[in-house]
């Protein structure tokens, strides 16, 4: 991002919004001017965009994810991508997307509208936020996202198969999944929610895809977690929504069953109890040569695209190295190995880590009247789940707004804009709503903060992939001392009967659970690919200088190797984008 960043407040912009404003007229006027500028051979948008404006572009003008900041850079981006054929089509005037004046805060007014556009290869949907500056309306944020490839639409809705004859469907279905006499175009390693969404998107575009899953059943990646695990954010998969009778936050095992049904219903090709032992890149053919182990037998595949959808940190535990662990007479687990407190009844437990998994596991032990102590190494960003829902989620993700529209709106604000909005929310509304909770935690010595720069959960999700807890009840157990707490300091060493700390204190334990997160999310690629392949890979996760997530759902640093990772909303949005990117490459639409 370039230059200092401040929000477009009414005072700063000298906003003059008339009380009888007609949002549709304002949007139409700006839209027509912008359209005319784009149609000219030398687009001039200087009078249409704020000096401190943003343009977030997902595969529309380029084949990457970009967030351009500043009028000068936006103008250059438009000129540099003129070959994309980007041109506007029409304003969206339906009830949910019609131009409307939004006031996220008393001193900020955004006139939001959506529109359709066309490029040389496809069509998309855009969302723009205008601000009033000295009476004029200028774009503060512009968002463009490719939705379809003109000659290669998804086989969904009106384009679904309408044949009334399917022959011996079952036999054909089994044969398709076996790839006995052919190779898939793409292989996805991991059939969790991310892999399945990506597989469904690729299949809808006619890209023959195989998913490789190490577990014996689809959904086991959720079933095999600790039994009390419940999702902390409301979720939905890309192809079809959860039943309206479902809880907003389903249990992990329930979700596992859903994913299994999802794969079966969408006829996704999944090999369970399977692994890729080795993936070799063949430069001459531009193909991946895969050695797949399936049910004790080997199979060689030759595919164009290899995708890793193996979860946060590839589910590889991140464990601190602590002296004298061999002298400890109790049991040591990582949170990935933990299932239920019922397996450890009567034991004295220490949990190392005070974020989501640490809290959930401590709550489970507390529910079973165990002697459990949480060791907090550093402050945790804590927010009540209901507070988060009321301030950030339910205004957009609710029963009245279709998920695809909510996803479009939530994606439309660049990270650094959202971050500043969230900073206001968490330092005012959220902090007030959670005051009793946060004060209670402080009283017992649990250290909290409002996230990086007081910006809440979002920076922790996209920059660290952890470091927070959306409270679903464990915080009150800590306040009530039903979950004991040791906060601060460092573990010095294991003893025969527990942990000794740098301050000289000691915690007795029969069981130590490390809820310390995961390692490098590229770990699986390092394990199965040759060293020269791994050496080319860019860092995965965290944000690049423009504010886009590094290497996820976009080029990884090595040809035809992709990483798909993220929460449910990210999977919904970006699985389609990566599928479009791969389909475009397969059809020769991308100039190499």
TrEMBL record:
What are the protein's GO molecular function terms?
A: flavin adenine dinucleotide binding; N,N-dimethylaniline monooxygenase activity; NADP binding
Give UniProt keywords alphabetically: FAD, Flavoprotein, Oxidoreductase
Q: Does the keyword Manganese apply?
A: no
Domain of life (superkingdom)? Eukaryota
Q: Cross-referenced PANTHER family, in alphabetical order?
A: FLAVIN-BINDING MONOOXYGENASE-LIKE PROTEIN (AFU_ORTHOLOGUE AFUA_4G09220)
Under which name does UniProt file this protein?
FAD/NAD(P)-binding domain-containing protein
């Amino acid at each position: 991002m370039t230059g200092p960043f401040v929000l477009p407040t009414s005072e700063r912009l000298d906003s003059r919004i008339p009380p009888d404003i007609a949002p549709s007229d304002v949007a139409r006027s700006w839209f027509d001017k912008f359209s005319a500028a784009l149609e000219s051979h030398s687009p001039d948008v200087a009078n249409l965009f704020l000096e401190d404006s943003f343009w977030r572009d997902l595969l529309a003008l380029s084949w990457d994810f970009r967030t351009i900041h500043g009028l000068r850079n936006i103008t250059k981006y438009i000129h540099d991508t003129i070959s994309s054929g980007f041109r506007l089509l029409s304003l969206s005037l339906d009830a949910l997307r019609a131009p409307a004046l939004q006031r996220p805060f008393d001193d900020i007014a955004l006139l939001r509208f959506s529109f359709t556009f066309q490029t040389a290869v496809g069509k998309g949907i855009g969302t723009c936020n205008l601000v009033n500056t000295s009476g004029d309306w200028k774009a503060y944020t512009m968002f463009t996202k490719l939705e379809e490839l003109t000659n290669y639409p998804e086989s969904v809705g009106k384009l679904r198969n309408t044949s009334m004859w399917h022959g011996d469907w079952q036999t054909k279905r089994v044969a398709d999944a076996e790839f006995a006499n052919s190779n898939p175009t793409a292989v996805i390693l991991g059939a969790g929610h991310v892999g399945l969404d990506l597989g469904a998107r690729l299949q809808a575009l006619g890209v023959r895809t195989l998913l490789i899953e190490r577990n014996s059943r689809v959904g086991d990646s959720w079933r095999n977690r600790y039994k009390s695990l419940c999702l902390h954010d409301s979720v939905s998969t890309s192809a079809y929504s959860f039943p309206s009778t479902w809880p907003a936050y389903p249990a992990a095992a329930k979700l596992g069953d859903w994913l299994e049904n999802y794969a079966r219903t969408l006829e996704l090709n999944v090999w369970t109890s399977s692994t890729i032992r080795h993936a070799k890149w063949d430069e001459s053919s531009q193909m991946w040569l895969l050695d797949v182990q399936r049910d004790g037998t080997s199979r060689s595949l030759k595919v164009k695209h290899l995708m890793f959808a193996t979860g946060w940190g590839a589910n590889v535990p991140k464990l601190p190295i602590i002296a004298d662990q061999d002298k400890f007479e109790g049991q040591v687990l990582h949170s990935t190995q933990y299932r239920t407190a019922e397996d450890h009844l009567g034991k004295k437990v220490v949990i190392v880590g005070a974020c989501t998994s640490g809290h959930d596991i401590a709550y489970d032990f507390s529910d079973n009247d165990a002697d459990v102590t949480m060791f907090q190494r550093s402050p945790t960003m804590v927010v009540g789940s209901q507070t988060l829902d009321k301030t950030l989620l339910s205004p957009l993700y609710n029963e009245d707004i279709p998920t695809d529209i909510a996803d479009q709106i939530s994606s439309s604000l660049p990270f650094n804009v959202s971050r500043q909005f969230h900073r206001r929310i968490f330092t005012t509304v959220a902090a007030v709503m959670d005051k009793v909770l946060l004060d209670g935690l402080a009283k017992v010595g649990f250290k909290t903060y409002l996230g990086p720069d007081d910006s809440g959960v979002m920076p922790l999700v996209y920059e660290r992939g952890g470091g927070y807890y959306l409270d679903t009840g464990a915080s009150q157990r800590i306040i009530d001392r039903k979950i004991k707490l040791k906060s601060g300091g460092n573990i010095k060493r294991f003893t025969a009967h527990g942990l000794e700390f740098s301050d000289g204190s000691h915690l007795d334990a029969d069981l130590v659970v490390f809820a310390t997160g995961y390692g490098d999310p590229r770990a699986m690629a390092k394990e199965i690919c040759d060293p020269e392949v791994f050496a080319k890979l860019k860092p995965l996760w965290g944000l690049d200088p423009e504010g886009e997530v590094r290497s996820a759902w976009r080029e990884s640093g090595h040809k035809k190797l992709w990483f798909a990772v993220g929460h449910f909303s990210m999977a919904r949005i970006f699985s389609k984008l990566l599928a479009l990117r791969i389909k475009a490459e397969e059809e020769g639409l991308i100039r190499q």
